[in-house]
């Protein structure tokens, strides 16, 4: 067997960020597909059939055990990706560099330092059972990458990746149909005819956008969300299964269920109790509408749209 790939999901959680944190989570989609899924597709593009994804919270010895078992079974090279970035690396070129130089271990660097991507020969894995990712002193060759890369350490970097993708600064292309220039809408999304859309933006599968909604400023709405009457999204990302109440002005924010993080102010709020945000469950796709938004919570009004509640 020629090659295997072990992907270690950063953040200690394959499903989401820690409640109350400002950490990026591997399960957050970027215009319809997660960074984890994009890495797996890049690996599979090499023809690699042996791919395993593990949680970084597991003991490093367990990860090393997996690689050692693969090596004993005849896997000649192992690609180790510690997921903490999105990088548009030509993995085929990395493999050629490693093979032609007869390197035992090759690590990928950009101008800021190591990217957590290593290619290891079978003999190197079998020679030492210590976890390679935690041994900076292990002899290795350096592969310098000068292309697009972003380290995903926070909601701020997540939003930057979304904006870069929507503005064509990286190779990510949104899923769904390009309805017009720089506007992507999944065929299963439902938008009221009165919805106003300013490019670039993305609306994902199963999304419901009600009357009078405005979407602008590189905003993205991921799968199975509902944006209710008259709300404006401005430089905002709405993560899957999120309900946003009527009449809100959501800007420079990432919203996940009941949690809103305003990136400009560096403030995170849980607005579930106020009825302004909700998590949409599979069994109850349409949460109850709040009856009195103005009395629910004292939020500052938008500087540009007087009379709306600025989330």
List keywords for this structure.
311 residues; alpha/beta; Spore Coat Polysaccharide Biosynthesis Protein SpsA, Chain A; UDP N-Acetylglucosamine Acyltransferase, domain 1; 2 domains; eleven-stranded mixed beta sheet; six-stranded mixed beta sheet; 18% helix; elongated
Structure commentary:
With 311 residues, the protein is α/β, with parallel strands linked by helices. The chain has two domains: 3-151, Spore Coat Polysaccharide Biosynthesis Protein SpsA, Chain A, CATH 3.90.550.10; 174-310, UDP N-Acetylglucosamine Acyltransferase, domain 1. 18% of the residues lie in helices and 34% in strands. The protein has helices spanning 35-44, 60-72, 91-100, 122-127, 155-166, 293-296, and strands spanning 3-9, 29-30, 33-34, 50-55, 77-83, 85-87, 105-110, 113-121, 141-144, 149-151, 177-180, 183-185, 190-191, 196-197, 201-203, 208-209, 214-216, 219-221, 226-227, 232-238, 242-244, 248-256, 259-262, 267-270, 277-279, 309-310. Strands 11, 12, 14, 15, 17, 18, 20, 22, 23, 24 and 26 form an eleven-stranded mixed sheet that branches. Strand 23 (259-262) and strand 24 (267-270) form a beta hairpin. The radius of gyration is 22 Å and the shape is elongated. Residues 11-20, 131-137 and 284-307 have low confidence and may be disordered.
């Amino acid at each position: 067997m020629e090659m295997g790939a072990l992907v270690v999901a950063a953040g200690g959680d394959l499903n989401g960020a820690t409640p109350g944190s400002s950490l990026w989570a591997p399960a957050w989609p970027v215009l319809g597909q997660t960074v984890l899924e994009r890495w797996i597709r890049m690996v599979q593009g090499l023809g690699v059939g042996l791919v395993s994804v593990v949680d970084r919270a597991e003991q490093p010895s367990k990860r090393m055990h997996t690689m050692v078992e693969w090596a004993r079974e005849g896997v000649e090279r192992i690609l180790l990706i510690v997921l903490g970035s999105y990088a548009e690396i030509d993995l085929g070129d990395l493999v050629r560099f490693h093979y032609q130089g007869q390197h035992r271990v090759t690590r990928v660097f950009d101008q800021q330092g190591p990217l957590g991507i290593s290619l290891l020969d079978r003999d190197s894995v079998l020679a030492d059972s210590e976890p390679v990712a935690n041994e900076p002193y292990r002899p290795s060759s350096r592969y310098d990458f000068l292309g697009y890369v972003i380290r995903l350490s926070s909601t701020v970097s997540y939003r930057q990746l979304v904006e870069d993708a929507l503005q064509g600064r990286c190779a990510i292309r949104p899923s769904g149909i390009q309805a017009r220039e720089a506007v992507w809408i999944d065929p299963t999304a439902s938008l009221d005819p009165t919805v106003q859309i300013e490019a670039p933006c993305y609306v994902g599968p199963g999304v419901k956008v009600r009357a009078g909604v405005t979407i602008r400023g590189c905003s993205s709405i991921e799968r199975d969300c509902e944006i209710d009457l008259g709300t404006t999204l401005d430089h905002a990302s709405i993560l899957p299964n999120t309900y946003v109440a009527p009449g809100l002005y959501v800007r420079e924010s990432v919203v996940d269920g009941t949690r809103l993080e305003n990136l400009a102010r560096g403030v995170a709020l849980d607005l579930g109790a106020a009825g302004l945000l909700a998590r949409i469950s599979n069994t109850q796709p349409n949460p109850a509408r709040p009856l009195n938004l103005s009395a629910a919570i004292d939020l500052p009004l938008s500087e540009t749209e007087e009379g709306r509640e600025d989330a």
